[in-house]
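User: I'm preparing a small set of examples for a lab meeting where we compare how different chains pack in three dimensions. I only have the primary sequence for this one, and I'd like the structure in token form so I can line it up with the others. Please keep the answer compact; I'll paste it straight into my notes.
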Amino acid sequence: MARTVPLPDTTARPAARPRNILWLLGPALVAGVAYLDPGNVASNMTAGAQFGYLLVWVVVTGNVMAWLIQYLSAKLGLVTGRSLPELLGERIGRKPARRLYWLQAELVAMATDVAEVIGGAVALWLLFDLPLFLGGIITGGISIVVLQLQNSGRHRSFEYVIVTLMLVIAVGFTAGVFLNPPDGGAVVEGLVPRFEGSESVLLAASILGATVMPHAIYAHSALTRDRFPGRTATLTTTRLIKATKWDVTIALAVAGSVNLAILLLAAGSLQGVAGTDTLEGAHAAIAASLGGVVATLFAVGLLASGLASTSVGAYAGAEIMQGLLKIRIPMLLRRLITLLPALAILALGIDPTWALILSQVILSFGIPFALIPLVWLTAQRDLMGSHRNHWWTTGLGVLVSVLLVGLNVTLLVLTFTGA
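Assistant: Understood. Below is the structure token output for the 419-residue chain.
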């Protein structure tokens, strides 16, 4: 089994410009966009419309879990100078096993892309009445332009674009909450863990499944590796880890607040309204309840969500292939290939909401394969050195892994049995 010696804090590399901690922020904000994709919107909107404030605690719990997971992923990339797929590619010795692992990770990345491209296509249809197939092509085309920034080494420019889209998402999805504030007492009551029937369990599992996504785990380790390729006397691993904690905290605070706002919007304005289990139905209900301006902002936020998250998802997919198979194909060719499933669904007229649900089910299969190795690798002294997990960090990681895997198994059972 291959061993990797962690980079020491004083390894000589080209100097960075660490003027202050703000300059070190960014990778987590990019990875955090995965927590604001159309699948999250659909899950949180449906939960609020059907059960009101009942599942507020699920959104908050999922966000706390996500903080730990994304921090571990970022730390892995910082300390080792390698991404999670690269490290797994080194440690999975047998080629057939490595290919099988790549296949499931690739399918997860493509399933993610399906949800994100469809979300962008639906948003363009809502905003401009464009055919869904054309909207999918436009969404994919814009993602190629954004990805080219990262592919050409312009990491900061890539971050600026994604963070700008994140701000648009935040405005688009939270505007309605300010116009119709939620019931404070009901929100507090929603922090108490409980369920009301199997349907609420299914939605809780869907929220968590849409929150902790495998491709975000793969991507974050690669983003920190690319952003901080070396160490200097002033830019040490210890300092980078400290900055990463702030980066992840800010990113997850934004993502968690927006996800919570979506649920609160639905709980306060759409509860009991028919048709809110689809994106287009939610848009119509928002327009009827809060007016056309809020509905338009919602659609703009959905478009930004699809564009930003599909760009990050495509980046993760390329890293998965490169890390596990040591194969790098031209970015444009790869992007065109990964767009085919989403475009096929749109061309065949398959219900977009059904496709979104199916994509979340596929994502559930991939969570253990990303999460368990992440916790295991970050606990290894020979790999992480003095930056390996504390025993309690590993313990929390194991607990989160067990909970998430258990809930996703529940999601799969309830989905396939129709319970």
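A couple of notes for your slides: Residues 1-18 have pLDDT under 50 and may be disordered. Residues 95-128 form the longest helix (34 residues).

User: Perfect, thanks.
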